[in-house]
Amino acid sequence: MSRDLRVKFNRKFIRRACLFGSKFQTSNLDTNLSVINRKRQNLS
Q1: Are 30 and 41 in contact (CB under 8 A)?
Q2: 2 torsion bin: left (phi>0), alpha (psi -120 to 50), beta (else)
Q3: For position 25, what pLDDT does the model report?
Q4: In which domain of life is the source organism classified (predicted)?
Q5: Is 44 exposed, middle or buried (0-12, 13-18, 19+ CB in 10 A)?
Q6: Which pTM does this prediction carry?
Q7: What is the pLDDT of residue 7?
Q8: Can you tell me the distance from the alpha carbon of 33 to that of 26, in angstroms, rounded to the nearest whole number?
Q9: Could you write out the three-class secondary structure of the chain?
């Protein structure tokens, strides 16, 4: 997946999450951070 597509998808997803409410958004951010951290660990 290209970076541009990922950014567009993330923006759309974050906007949708805002509609669902801050609780959903914060939990979603937590899962995203854990996924990013896992990817970083795999790279290093």
Answers
A1: no
A2: beta
A3: 56
A4: Bacteria
A5: exposed
A6: 0.33
A7: 84
A8: 10
A9: CCHHHHHHHHHHHHHHHHHHCHHHHHHHHHHHHHHHHHHHHHHC
For residues 25 and 17, the answer to whether their CB atoms sit within 8 Å is: yes
For 43, the token pair is: 């790279």
Cβ atoms 24, 17 nearer than 8 A: yes
Q: 9-37 burial, b for 16+ CB within 10 Å, e for fewer? A: eeeeeeeebeeeeeeebeeeeeeeeeeee
Residue found by looking up tokens 């993330």 in the block: 10
Side chain identity at residue 32, one-letter code: N
